[in-house]
Structures are given as structure tokens and as C-alpha cells.
Amino acid sequence: MSTLPATSALPFKVADLSLATAGRHQIRLAENEMPGLMALREEFGPSQPLAGARIAGSLHMTVQTAVLIETLVALGARVRWASCNIFSTQDEAAAAVVVGPEGTVDAPAGVPVFAWKGETLEEYWWCTDRIFDWSAEAAADGAEWTGPNLILDDGGDATLLVHHGREFEAAGGVPEATDATSAEFRVVLDTLRASLERDASRWTRVAGDLLGVTEETTTGVHRLYELHAAGELLFPAINVNDSVTKSKFDNKYGIRHSLPDGLNRATDVLMGGKVAFVAGYGDVGKGAAEALRGQGARVIVSEIDPINALQAAMDGFEVKRLESVIGEIDILVTGTGNKDVVRVEHLLGLKHLAVVANVGHFDNEIDMAALESLPGAERVEIKPQVHEWRLPSGRSVLVLSEGRLMNLGNATGHPSFVMSNSFTNQVLAQLELYTRTDAYPTGVYVLPKHLDEKVARLHLDALGVELTELTPDQAAYIGVPVEGPYKVDHYRY
Amino acid sequence: MSTLPATSALPFKVADLSLATAGRHQIRLAENEMPGLMALREEFGPSQPLAGARIAGSLHMTVQTAVLIETLVALGARVRWASCNIFSTQDEAAAAVVVGPEGTVDAPAGVPVFAWKGETLEEYWWCTDRIFDWSAEAAADGAEWTGPNLILDDGGDATLLVHHGREFEAAGGVPEATDATSAEFRVVLDTLRASLERDASRWTRVAGDLLGVTEETTTGVHRLYELHAAGELLFPAINVNDSVTKSKFDNKYGIRHSLPDGLNRATDVLMGGKVAFVAGYGDVGKGAAEALRGQGARVIVSEIDPINALQAAMDGFEVKRLESVIGEIDILVTGTGNKDVVRVEHLLGLKHLAVVANVGHFDNEIDMAALESLPGAERVEIKPQVHEWRLPSGRSVLVLSEGRLMNLGNATGHPSFVMSNSFTNQVLAQLELYTRTDAYPTGVYVLPKHLDEKVARLHLDALGVELTELTPDQAAYIGVPVEGPYKVDHYRY
Amino acid sequence: MSTLPATSALPFKVADLSLATAGRHQIRLAENEMPGLMALREEFGPSQPLAGARIAGSLHMTVQTAVLIETLVALGARVRWASCNIFSTQDEAAAAVVVGPEGTVDAPAGVPVFAWKGETLEEYWWCTDRIFDWSAEAAADGAEWTGPNLILDDGGDATLLVHHGREFEAAGGVPEATDATSAEFRVVLDTLRASLERDASRWTRVAGDLLGVTEETTTGVHRLYELHAAGELLFPAINVNDSVTKSKFDNKYGIRHSLPDGLNRATDVLMGGKVAFVAGYGDVGKGAAEALRGQGARVIVSEIDPINALQAAMDGFEVKRLESVIGEIDILVTGTGNKDVVRVEHLLGLKHLAVVANVGHFDNEIDMAALESLPGAERVEIKPQVHEWRLPSGRSVLVLSEGRLMNLGNATGHPSFVMSNSFTNQVLAQLELYTRTDAYPTGVYVLPKHLDEKVARLHLDALGVELTELTPDQAAYIGVPVEGPYKVDHYRY
Amino acid sequence: MSTLPATSALPFKVADLSLATAGRHQIRLAENEMPGLMALREEFGPSQPLAGARIAGSLHMTVQTAVLIETLVALGARVRWASCNIFSTQDEAAAAVVVGPEGTVDAPAGVPVFAWKGETLEEYWWCTDRIFDWSAEAAADGAEWTGPNLILDDGGDATLLVHHGREFEAAGGVPEATDATSAEFRVVLDTLRASLERDASRWTRVAGDLLGVTEETTTGVHRLYELHAAGELLFPAINVNDSVTKSKFDNKYGIRHSLPDGLNRATDVLMGGKVAFVAGYGDVGKGAAEALRGQGARVIVSEIDPINALQAAMDGFEVKRLESVIGEIDILVTGTGNKDVVRVEHLLGLKHLAVVANVGHFDNEIDMAALESLPGAERVEIKPQVHEWRLPSGRSVLVLSEGRLMNLGNATGHPSFVMSNSFTNQVLAQLELYTRTDAYPTGVYVLPKHLDEKVARLHLDALGVELTELTPDQAAYIGVPVEGPYKVDHYRY
């Protein structure tokens, strides 16, 4: 996909149906692993509570996301979709969603998707821009609106585009890039500059249409709290990330599954007996460390927070600064959500052909920019998303997915069952914003606990779990309703 | 200790110094395992911030508690102490604390302690009453106060006595027991009735003296929130239980250690290969399940909360109702904080000589009252705290610690290192109430996060943990101070 | 690869160098993970102890095998190679070996390889036949020999072909197939029939040339012991499988790595929280069970041997007959080395879309033949090596690699580091047969313990392992040489 | 028990029945955990196959051994017993065995036992001498024999006494001790010198009576193989240690249970988060490492054998020489079977109050002799079997059980279920020697595999294990009988 695809209902060329057919097989299998979403289709399909909703989605365009998209549609919504990562799209899933279960290549009956595996940064932001262009739908409806009324976001790029678009429109123009502007933000500026040239009030109208955003990730949520603290948040936001059934499941159990999957697909490196270093012992790091230990690796952890550090120690892990053990490491994994965690000086200190992998968020966890500008460093592609960097020291390191999320770039992301938890939260959050709008003035919210428990409840039968029921007497004794919610808000699980 | 000891500075008879000497040895070893408390002595000893504090403590009188008590004293406080469980006192620790590091049997220089292993209920509540009698100290100071100005509580019995005492004094008398009154509450009523007879305004004055209480346990905290919700809480309370370094450490890692310890000391039952059932998958249940799995047991878990149930399943445990698997169980552990979790019908369904053990809170997790009144059931003492109950079915079960906390009754409770975390929180909480009184109007509080992180920080060196430090740039990137606190309040660890 | 390739030095068409180049990259990375083989090149390369050796290899043609082949060549041997499994060839590895590090497509300088991914049974046995045809090499040397002087075998197919070839030649012809003859054995008979027609004494001469075979697997070794017990073994055999550094490493740690890898690549099924059933608790089953538990699955094991069954129980696994729990299983793994372990009645009892995977040896662990002839069963290809079987019950099961070894068919087999252990044993065994021929009269042998320890020793540095050295005094105390071997032969590790 | 007890049927003073009654309770509970022994009583009790057997037993006199002794008696044998360790006797078990289920203090009806907790070396060897004195029994029977006809040994001390006794009798006298003679061997010499003075041909007659010995431990077995290799073994020996159901169960799963039990009873040290060092990764070390990891310790292992070292690495443990990490260790465990593993230089390098514990065999794993003679070292008894050694460095270490087996000295040894496996092997081995005498000429034997499998089989029901049965067709396919044995002799489990 080397050229920008045309703006059309079918956003990219599918030469024949084979890609979509393969994707449809996988979607069908994934549905079996996503009991939460399937239960919502059954519960809410008849009443169509999302009728009238126009959802702009920016989230890895995988098979699981296909089941999410088709669930939103089954509840009555209209949807436009982009990926939130240049490498994470599974093309067959995108094709299947575009074609739709009943459609054909020539008459697609699905959802407009703007995503493919291996986008350039320009293509990525063009795609993100596209999900805010609801002119075709407005024309079809004879409606006045410009954009969506809901955003479903992962990492906050869609939300960022709206906020900066409106900001620059208010300021009368897009600022020039400076030396300090990152390569990616230059593309954002260019994208918005082109938009303002076409229509100088577009983002202001888009922002006005929006009822809110539901955000998937730690990083995105962090941005939202900062925006809100600064008084700049434009619409209500639901923090899906901090639902227990998201953060404690997707982040931990998802990474536990997909980190070794990505390592295996990318390399032939045995984990058993090796020294693996995990930077960060939050939920992501906990899942990573457990997975690596489960494969017989010796895991060393780093942490900045003394509480998490103490947890890591109590869980039996060695806790050290990266500098202290750099020469022993075979597999280096970052999962912090911070930047510059692995710097060039670290890369230079690693063993020959050590593997470097990021499961945090952005590619700046590993300082890829500095590596790319390191004199004497040479990049050799072993296969797509696996690069040997030959360093001036004479040693090499293997960098996965160019420092971006390797569980998406080298594997297929979290498995469906885990994503079913996250995405059931997403759908419930979209329902909250759309059907209980008044309950959410501008601000950042987590879902109420009874919905969090509902998400869990919808996933128990598939695992053969029997839930014990409180007697009324027992419920009274601990002061909770028999049917829940069962815990105080500050309970940590 | 079969008779009520005299009210005296030395609350029970120590025939010679051997018990106190043995306790002092253990206290010295425990100090090496309690780096948090020792660090507080070093930091705050010189400034004596607890000078003037009068602390009534009700918490298992173990070796670790001895280090806590002596830390409070080292910070300037005066202390009186009772245990919060009839079986949990380690007599040598009590003796050593009474005698004090410099004292003798004839001239004890330590702290008045009212606790011994194997109290009757009458003795227990008498002891609890004693810690509120500061008349000797008041006389020595020429002061007017009746009781303590701070409570350090575990389970809430001390707090309960004050609240009921004041309530009955306000009502003009203690109500009669009814058929529905539990055996234990009858003793509470009797204890208060005697108190009111001696002094009809004592508890009202005690309540008036109090600056607040710091509470150790889930159960006690639950009572406090209920009292506050009902508008009946008499003074501020700090919920120590929900400090991360308490609930996530003491409850989980403490039980992980002390459950198998108690099982081993009580019985000769191999855990490996056996079926262990753990009721409840909160922090206590998580620690219990991990410990049993670590010994090769096959662990089945029960839960009422779908989120915790899903966690248990994702952690690889079978999740079933107790009824479904009762006939397979070799070791049955309760850690729910609820009542009637194991009922007589369950006990009758267990395998011959199955072990029944409670690490939750009260002895009503297992319905001991119903067992005791079961026709045809016979109790045979194998050794103290280990009883074979011969059931009418012809089978027997082994009940540990008469259904009370077996990790205290059959072992020595949580190990010192874990308790150092909990107790460092306790001391910091006492400091908050005493030195920052205005910051805590009547209500229930958790400690601020920077203190929670401080507790963790004080325990890292002893484990050889290296903490990674944020650069100012990284701190700014994620929006936290370099020195912490690092997490939002709702972060779950 | 749909037509039989021509008999040539380059056994199959490589359109351009890209496949070989990709393979060479992977071989280079694998060399970094195979310290045992690289150490042998360093130790024995100069002295060329395998000069004159002609090795017919039948073993999965993977990247790791490429490093093995090139090690044999580096020690002086000439080699011809086939795969021992129709699905296990990695085409890029085969291409790279054929081309050789210095060769080109037009002037290959490597080793003749007869293997590609997805052979038919006819092609498979044609390939196996080809590794015994050393006429081109004989012509080049002006030599009289017909075939190889050494076999390196995996599963015993190459050895079987020689034994049956010689047997039928002695009998004067190949017997007719009967109704009881399996589909695969019919192909063997056809292959030999064609051979006898061309040359009626070829296999007799081949057998006469052979100094022996080194066998990789449990199954192959089992056949060899049976042949020897029946007095029919034609040449000495070294049982590489039962070197500790093979059976306890390849079988256990290899499967621990490659089973989840295969499951992940084949399906999107989360292992965490699922019920996984592992048939067999030998080394393969132990590795499988550990891997699945390490991913949070609940693992149930079956066993026929009471000792292994007791081990499984003591390791914390539930041990049940497959029939007893069939309806609970999400992932069903076979690793027994026996046949008919999973039968059609089991497949019909599984949950919808349960995954069925074999890591034992032959595809008859799962009764694929019966499934294929089940009326009403329909096979849908999800993707290569992943088939949904729609059953008459209305449910489906997902069968991986058509019941053959899924860690090879769906993943890339054991990782290099594990194979380095196995293959270092193979090279040492080839060296024993070729350079110490007199020490091995016809019979089946394991490698002497000092070589087994040597294999381990060559892999320690790469893992940062420090070995403790005995003092002469300590060695004398336990009666072993300071430099080993350290254990009695019956020691079980 | 500070004086040598009188030679009598009741070898030591039992003031009243309370000790024996407590022991009898525990024996009854242990019987529930020893299904193998109870099944043998049921199978062989009626036929009395050990009628006429006179067994001298030297094995830790615990509750489990009581069940073993009473099983031997139930099969018809007469028995005399000593412990094989000065600290390991459980006095209540000894008392109960002496008194017997039906006896009284005044009329004991059990077995003569010569063992109590805390023997001196002189007492220990006196006790061992006593089990060879069957004069009372001979007199009662009017028989001519001097001693037992079978030995049941643990560590080989009983066997050693016979061999040295006969050797010195043949030499005409006991040699003088030299400077190189160990303190313990001086006691052996004194014991034999006294015996020769009383009766100069006693041990020659004892040796002549003996049909053989069954030996429990690695160390004892090692001595037997050495004796046999030197041509000095006097009678056949069955190596019970190397039954799979012994070495792989008792050594590994027993230590997994009893190591943490001993640590917990001895100290209040949390294992979680601590650095534990395990010297030796044989079966004992594997069990120790698993137990410590299961409690959240970070485990470092040392090994001399490269195969075991590689196993440790592949199991995820750091493998280092003790010297390399000595300053990081909190808990130091030896399980090697060798001497001088922990030397004074190591003890001086440990952290303050590090715990030092031996679960190998003799107290020379830790060089206690050198510690005892270290100038400036001071020993403080914290409690029995727990000593603080204050070192000249100013630091202390805690040494458990004076360097002897701490799982016996600080805890109660392996749990009953594990010992049931070992002891069922012992009984079967005694049966082999006594009833199939001709099958065992002088030499060292392991039990035939079908008996090893039988031991396992007798323990499955108690764990709820379902064994899968081979079909005749499957059995034929892998070439084993349907009912076993299933494995070749070199199979490693």
C-alpha cells in the first residue's frame, strides 16, 4: 500500500475477496472468544440504543476490533475507523469489516476503515483525519453535522487532533514547526494546516458535535486528566483504561499472552534460561514478568515507584537499575509509559544480538531517534518488524517493531478474550455517554462499579467459573446488595 | 493463666526472667527484620513527636507488636496494650515488653500489657477494658484525664467498647441480653455493666479525650465506615488497612507466609498433591492460593464478586462453589471476612480428616457455633489449637484454632518484615493524628500517598532493591514530581 | 511446490536468491543461539574428524538443522538431507543450505536437500529415498559405494526404509498391500517396489555400507530397541534421545517454548483462564503442562503410568481420564507417543471450537483417520495447518497441523538454543560411530556420560552460568573425578 | 534425658502415659496420610510374610517411622529401633511405639526403641549398638542367633557398625584414634572397643546372621556402592533411595515441604523478597529451590555438574558460585551430600543475621568444626536448635540444628504422605530380601520397576488421581504389558 488511497467508501483496494474471506473466518472464531461483546449484541440488539450515534474510532484495526465495530453497528451506531498505530492493522480484518458480512468487493456493506499494515506517518494522520469527515453520511441523511458525535480512542490521537484543530482555528492558523518539534508532530501540523486551508472552522464544528470520548489506554487517559486539569478538555471523557476489567486484564493478562507471542514470531530466541529485563512493574510489567518467568527466563525488573518496586521484590524478582545489569541481559522489555527508558548508552552495553522490545506505549520508551542518528549504526532488516542494528561497538541488537508496540507489530496484539473485556467496557462507556448524556458533564470519569462487575460477569461462563451467591444474611453482614456492587471504590483488586 | 490477673503495672505473673529473656532475644532478631520501624526510631527519636501521646493499643501481642510498641515509646508516647485475639499472644513477647529492655521482674521498666495466650472471653474483655484505665498514669502526672488520647486498633474491639460505653452511658444503662445476643456480646454487655456501676460517665470522658483511632484490618475499617455513614463515629479514624503497603503486603504476602506455617505446625498434612479450597480471592485469598500452589497443592477458589472470580480464573485457578467440590477437598481455608462461609452441611461433606482453617477474621467464617451444638459431634484435642471433630457421619474433620485466625493461633502470625510495613503505617498514622490534628476532622481517612510510598521506600534496602530515579525530563513527561508521589489515587497496584 | 522436483544437486527450484538470503540471515542469528555446535566447529574444525563420512540425514529441515548440517560439513562430512515430516520444512532454511554461504542459485555450493513445506506422502518418501542415492558423489570420487556410511535419523523413517528395502530384496520382492495396510505404508511399499525394479540389490549394498545410525526421538529409539530385541538390527545405533541433554532439554524445555508458540500462531485463543488437557506426563507432557500453567491455564493431565501420574499430582495438576473431563476442555494437547489417545468419541464431546493439538509424534495420537471418515464431518481450512472440523453434533473443533506435530507445523519447532543441545549430542554421536567404530558393535547405545556433561558444559557460558568446581578433597569424598563424570548411570536428574 | 538409659524393654523413662498418648494421636492421623503402608497391612497382614524376620532399624524415630515400624510388625516381623540422627527423634512417637497401641507404661507391648531428641554422640552410638543386641529375644525363643537378620538403614550408620565391628574383630582389635580421626569416629572406635572387650566375635556372628540391608539415603547408598566396588560388602543391599517413588518424591517433594517448615519454626524470617541460595540442584536442591520460589524468594543455585547447572538455569534460577554472591544472601541452604560446601570464609561474608541451614546429609556440609574453633566466635542459643553465632566481623549468622538436617531438627521431617512412599519401598525391599533371598546375591540392587510402580499406585486414590488404562492395542503398539511396567530402566521421569 504505497500510495494514499482515495477517499471512498472502500478506503483501499482489495483485489479480490480472498483477504476479506480470510478475515471473516477469523472474525467468526474471535466471536467465540468474545463472550462479552456477543452478550451485549443479544441484550441490546433489539432496542438499538446507539441509533443515531456517529462514532469515530481510532484503535488498532485487528480482528478483535472488527468484532467491536460490528457490535457497535449491531447496537445501531454508524462508524468510521482508523488504526492508532502504523503497524498494528491486520489487513484481512480491515478488508472483512469494509466488505461486511453480506457485502462484496464491488458493493461493500460494512464500515469505512482507513487503516493498513505499514502506514507512513503522513498516511497515518491522513487516516485519522478521515474518520472525522462525515460529509458523505451527512449528505445521505440530509443532515447538517460535520463530524462524529462520539470518539472511541486509543492513545488519544483522535482526541488530540480535535483539540489542536480547534485551538489552531481559534488562533487563526497553525504554528510553524521549530527545531524542537518532533518528526511526528510536524506531520500533525501539516495535516491540520491542510485542513484549515480547506475549511477554517471545521474542527470547531467537529468539537461542538461531540458528546464525548471513551479512551482505552493509560497514556491516553493521562493526557485527558492533564487537559481537564488545565481547563482545556472540550467534552466529557470516560476513562475505560481504569475499569478493573480493563487495566487489570488487558494490561496484565493481555501482555502476558502477547509478549511471548511477539518474541516468538519475531525471533528464534529461547526465553528459558535467559536473562530478561522488564522496565516497569505496573500492570503491563507484571504481565510481562509473569510470562517470561513462566517460560523459564530469569527476570530482572526496574521501577521508579517504591511501592511497585517492593511488590516486584515480594513477587520474587530481582529489582535493579538498568545500568547495573545491562551486560547480562538477553531480552530487554519496556512497559513504563515513560520516555527515554532505554537510551543509546544502554543499547551499546547490551550483549550481542540481545532483543529489545517495547510493550509500553510510544516508540520513545526506547530512544529510537537517538539510535537512528547514531554515527556508525547500521540497520539490517531481518524480516518485517525485525531489525538488526549493527552498532559501532561491533555488537548488534535486535529491535522489534522499530520500537513501537511489538505485541501488535510482531504478533496480533492481545487475544480476543482479553479484548472482549476491554471492548465490553468500551461499548458500555459509549452507551453511557450517548444514552445518559446528562450524567456526564465535561470531565473525566471511570465507569460505575456495577458496570465493571457486569463486564466480568459476562465472561465467567465461557471459563466454566461458578460464582458463589451471597445469602441475604451474608450480604447484610458485610453491608452490600446481594447482586453487587461488592467493593468500595478504593478497593484495589 | 487460669485466673484473672491483678490490676498492676505487671499484669501477669512472670515467675522468673527466662520468659522475658527469650522474648528479648526474639525482639532483637525481629528488629533486624523490621527496617521500617527502626528507620522511624532513627528519624523521629531525637524530636520525640509523640511526647504527650497516650496510646491504648489492641492488637495481637506478638514479637512484632513488641517492636511496634517500643517504637511508639521511642517516639515519646506512653502506651497500654491488650491483644485483639484470645489465642494470639506470644507470652514471651508480652513478658519482654512488660519487663522492658532495662527492667527486671521486680522493677519492670516497660509497658503495661494485658494479654496472654488462651484467654477466656471474660478475660479478653477485661483486658480490653484495662487499656482505657489511665488512672495510675494520670495520678503520676497529676493530670485530669481518664483514658488515652489515641487508640491503635485491630478489628475494632477497642473502638467498639468506647462507642458502646458512651452509648449506654447516654442511655442511662446497659441493655439486657436477648436470645439473639451472641455469647461474646453478652460478655461485652457484662463488662460495660460493671464499668457503669463503678463510674457512670467514664466512657463519655474517655471518648472526649480521644483524638482518634488508627485501624489495622478490613473488618475494623468496615465497621468504621458504617459508623461514619450512620453519623455515629465519635472521633477521626485513619484506615491503615487500605494503605497499599498494608493491604497489598500484610494481607497477601503475610498470609502467603503464615498460612502454610500454621498448617505445618498444626498438622502433618502434605500440601503437595492435595486439593485445597480457598474461600475468597481478595488479598488474603490471593496470598493463600499462591502459597498453596507454591507447595504443589491443586487450589480451587470460590468468590462472590465476578471481578475477583475472573482474576482467579485468569491466574489459573479453578473457581467453584464450595458445594460443588466439597467431597474432593483435603484442606479448606476461609479468607472472606464474611460469616457462615463454611456451614455444618459443608463440614459433613468433607473427606475424613480434612483440615479446616480460617485466615479471614472472625471465627464465624466457619460456623463454629453450629458445629458445637451439632448432636453427635465430639471434639478431641490432638494438641492445643488442633481439634479433631468426630462427626455423626463417622468421619472427622480437623479444625484449627477453634475457627479463629489459625495463622496466629497455630503459627506466629505474619512475619516481622511484613508487619514492619503495616506497623510503619500505623506509626505514621498515629503521628498524623497527633501532630496534624486539624487536618483530620471526624471521618475515616487513608494515609496520603507520599507516606504510603515512604513506607515502601524504608523497606527496599533490606531486600537489595535498587530504585530507578526519574530524570526531571521524564518526571515532567508523565507529570509527577521526581520524588513522588507517582500515582493517581485510584491506581490499583 | 506442486510437482516432483528434478533429481539434481539443487533439488528444487529457487526462483531467485531472496529465499536463500532470508534463510542465511536466520541461520546467522541461530548460530548465536547454538553455542554447542559453534564450539564443536571451533574444537574439531581444524582436525576434520568426519572427513570421509557420508551422512544421510532425515530430520526436520529447519533453520536449526541448517546449523547442524553446516557443522557436520565443517567437521569434514559430506551430507544429503531430507525432512522427517511433510510440514516441518522451513523453505528459506532449505534454500540457504542448498545455496551454501558462498554459493549462488546457479552455482550452489551447499548441501543437497530434498525437502519443502507441504509435501505429499509420495513426495516425502521420494525425498527419503533420495538421501540414499550417493551415485553422483561416488562418480565424482571414482568410488564404489552406493549409499551413505552414516544415518542421522529422527523418528526412524530413514532407518526403516533401509531395513525394509534389504528385507524385501532378500525376499525377492515387495509384498502387496492388504486392507490392513495404512495409507502411508502403501507409499513405502510403492517407493521400495520402484527401487527394486530399478536395482534389486541396492538396499542390501546400502545396508552394508552403513557404520550406524544416530536417532533423535523417543519413537525412533523405541523402534530400534524392538529391532535389536528381534535380532533384526543391521548396524549399531546411538540413542541420542536418551542423553540427558536431549530428552530432558529438547523434549521438556523445547515443548515448553514451542507449544504456546504454535498455539499462538495457529489461533487467537487466550490460554489464561482456559482448561487445557495434556495427555501424557513424560518429558514432553511436563514441558507442555508447565508452559500452559505459565500462561495461566488450568491444566489437567492424563497418564497411564502411576509414577508419572503421581508426579503430576505432586506438581499440582489435576489428573483425570480424558473421558471424565472432556466437556470442560478448551485446549487438548497430546504428547504420549502412543496411538488413538484422542478418538472420535472424544472429539465429539469437546466444547465448540476447542483446539486439538499434537506434540507427541505421529498423527495417530489423534485418530485423524477416523475423523476423516466420520460421516457428516466437514473440514474447513481457516488457514494453512489450521482446520475447523464441523462435526455432526453441530459443534466444531480446530485441529492443528492435521494432527501432526503442531510445534513444527504451526510454529518453527524447538528454538535454536534447545536444538543446540540435541544437535551437539548428534554430532558427538556421529563422531563416536565414525571415529570409534570398534567400540560400537551392532546394538543400541546411549552416549557416555562425560559427553552428555560436555554438551551441557558448552551451553553454560551463553546463559551466564558459573559452575562450581570441586576441590580434590571434595571430589575424593564423593568418589568422582574433579572434572566429572559426576553421577552414576542410573541417576535421573 | 541427660543420662544413659538402662538397657531394658522400655529404653527410656516415660513418667506417665501422656507422652505416649499424644504420640498415639499423631500416629493415628499419620496413618490417614500413609495410604501405601496401610494398603500393605491389608494386603500382607493375613499371610504374615515377615514372620521370623528380626529387623534392626536405624532411621529418624518420628511419627511416620512409627507407622513404618508398626507395619513391619503387622507383617510378622520383630523389630528393634534407633534413630539415625541425634536431634531427629520425636519423643512422643518413640514413647507411643514402645508402649504399643495396647500397652501401658508398666507393661509396654510395643517395640524396643533406643532414641530420644538431643542425644550426645556417645548416646547415639550406644543406641545404635543396642539394636544389634537380640539376646533377650534369643533367650525368649531359645534360639542361637546373636543379632538381627535384616537391617533397615538410613545413612548407613548401622551398616557401618557391623562392617567395622567385623573388620576389627578379624584384625584382633580396634585401632587407636589419630589426630586425623574425627570426633564422631572416635566414639565409634570407643563403642566397638567396648564391644570387643565384652565379646570378641560378636560382630562376626552378627554379620553372619544378616540376609541384607535396605538403605534409605543417597549418602548411605553411596557408601554401599563403594563397599561393593572394594569387595568388602558383607551382605546384599537394596538401594531404596533410587526407587523413583523415593528419590524423586522424598528428596524433592519432601524437602519442598519441610525446608520452609523448618525455616518458619526456627526463625521469624520472611522468605518473600529475600535472596535464598541453594547449594546443589539434585532432587533435594530442586525441592528446596521450588519451595523458596513458591514463597516469593529470589533463589540463586550453585552446582558442580554442568547438566544439573543447565537444568537450574532452564528452570529460571540464577546459577552462581557461592563466593560470587555471598554478600547478597539472606538464607543459605545446603543440599549437596558433599562436605565443606559452606566454609568459614563464607560465613564471614554473609549479611548480618543471615540464616544458614542444611538439608543435605551430614553436618560437614557446613564446616561446623571450623566455625566452632574460630577465634572470637561466640555461640548464643536463641532457642533449641537455633543458634546465633557472633562472628569476629561484628556480624552474626543464625545456624539451624547445629548444621545437621534442619528439616528434622527444626521441623518434623518430611510429611507422612511423602514418607509413605519411601517407607512402602522399604517394606517391599525388606520383603524382597526376606522372601526372595536367592534372587539377591551379595551386591547392591534397586527394586524392580513393577514394585516402584506399585508404590505409586497405592498413593493415587488418596489424591483423587484417575489413572488412564492402556487398551491392549495401545499396549502392543508401544510394546508394554497393559498392567506395566511401562518404562525402560534408564527412563528418568
Automatic annotation (TrEMBL), chains A, B, C, D:
S-adenosyl-L-homocysteine hydrolase NAD binding domain location: 251-413
Protein name in the entry: Adenosylhomocysteinase
Chain sites annotated for binding NAD(+): 217-219, 251, 280-287, 303, 308, 338, 407, 414
Xref: NCBIfam families: ahcY, PRK05476.2-3
GO term, biological process aspect, one: S-adenosylmethionine cycle
Record-linked SUPFAM superfamilies: Formate/glycerate dehydrogenase catalytic domain-like, NAD(P)-binding Rossmann-fold domains
Similarity comment: Belongs to the adenosylhomocysteinase family.
Co-factor remark: Binds 1 NAD(+) per subunit.
Source organism (scientific name): Agromyces rhizosphaerae
UniProt-listed InterPro entries: Adenosylhomocyst_ase-like_sf, Adenosylhomocysteinase-like, Ado_hCys_hydrolase_NAD-bd, NAD(P)-bd_dom_sf, S-Ado-L-homoCys_hydrolase_CS
HAMAP family cross-referenced by the UniProt entry: AdoHcyase (MF_00563)
Function: May play a key role in the regulation of the intracellular concentration of adenosylhomocysteine.
GO cellular component: cytosol
Catalysed reactions listed for this entry: S-adenosyl-L-homocysteine + H2O = L-homocysteine + adenosine
SMART domains the UniProt entry points to: AdoHcyase, AdoHcyase_NAD
Domain of life the protein comes from: Bacteria
